[in-house]
Amino acid sequence: MANLLVTGGAGFIGVNLVRWWKERNPDDALTVLDSLTYAGNANSLDGLVGTEGFEFIHGDIRDTDMVTDIISDKGIDVLVHLAAESHVDRSIEGPDAFIDTNVVGTHSLLKAARKVWFTNDRWAPHRFHHVSTDEVYGSLAMDDPAFNEETPYAPNSPYSASKAGSDHLVRAYHHTFGMEVTTTNCSNNYGGYQFPEKLIPLVLINTLHGKPLPIYGDGMNVRDWLHVSDHCRGIELAIRKGDPGETYCIGGRNEAPNIEIVKMICRLLGERFAADPELSSRFPECPAASGRDNQELITYVKDRPGHDRRYAIDPTKASSELGYEPEMTFESGIANTIDWYLANEPWWKAVTDGSYRDWIDTNYGARQS
Ligand code: NAD
Ligand code: TDX
Question: Theoretical Cys-Cys bridge with 288: which of 152, 273, 366, 369, CB 3.0 to 4.6 Å?
Answer without folding.
Answer: 273
